[in-house]
Amino acid sequence: MNLILENLLGRLLLEKDISAFYNFTDQVNNENKLIKICAMTSVNANKVRCNRCGTIHIKTNVKLPIGAFFCPTCLDLGRVRSDEYFYHLPQQDFSEKTYLRWTGKLTENQEKISNALCQQITNNQKLLVQAVTGAGKTEMIYQLIEQILSHGGSVGLASPRIDVCIELHQRLSRDFTCQIPLLYHEGDSYFRSPLVVMTSHQLLRFKEAFDLLIIDEVDAFPFRDNDMLYFALENAKKINGNLLYLTATSTDKLDKQIKKA
Ligand SMILES: [Zn+2]
């Protein structure tokens, strides 16, 4: 499979995103049978929804001089315009193999939680691990990550905090054998891997990609009770994918999300 196709598996990209790594032409679009999704959809005569972040806008507030609408909410990731399209290809499995090289030992308590997670994460689960800083919650999720990866699945780790992402990326790169992309702000340094670390906004560039999405420091601003990012989580995970929230505290919205599961 060529690079453009690989980089589109499980992703939701605008033509300008794709142009960053490929000279995009209509010919490529047709040959490769990319799935084309309208960037914005009219909800009714007055409202229009952005299909990247899910925000519904009043048309007159977001109308451009050329007559098309745009989404101000997810502008940070590049402007979405109603006369443009997203491109997507369905996610594919990775090769089934062992990636974990960490040989450390969990405490009895950590092991209990690790085992419980491995048993409970099956299909479409939402789980919350509340652990104080320094309780070793990263090591507690290693077995779970390995379980998904060894079956050819994909795992995403997201946090609203860039410092948390950088630290997670360093630790996972040390403790797993695969190359792991670290995605943050505008630059798209993506390459295909079964394990991806990203800031929470980057989730909006994925569609039905992950068997397991882990959200660290979910209580940190700006993720806290942010409708756009809960929308992103639901879209970025596979339809039967799982969500695991790691947090030191909890929020009303989060509690409701978990109870729904
Ligand atoms: Zn948007």
Automatic annotation (TrEMBL):
GO terms for biological process: DNA recombination; DNA replication initiation; double-strand break repair; SOS response. GO terms for molecular function: 3'-5' DNA helicase activity; ATP binding; DNA binding; hydrolase activity. Residues 118-261 form the Helicase ATP-binding domain. Keywords: ATP-binding, DNA damage, DNA-binding, Nucleotide-binding, SOS response. InterPro entries: Helicase/UvrB_N, Helicase_ATP-bd, P-loop_NTPase. The keyword Nuclease does not apply. This is Helicase ATP-binding domain-containing protein. The lineage of its organism: Bacteria, Bacillati, Bacillota, Bacilli, Lactobacillales.
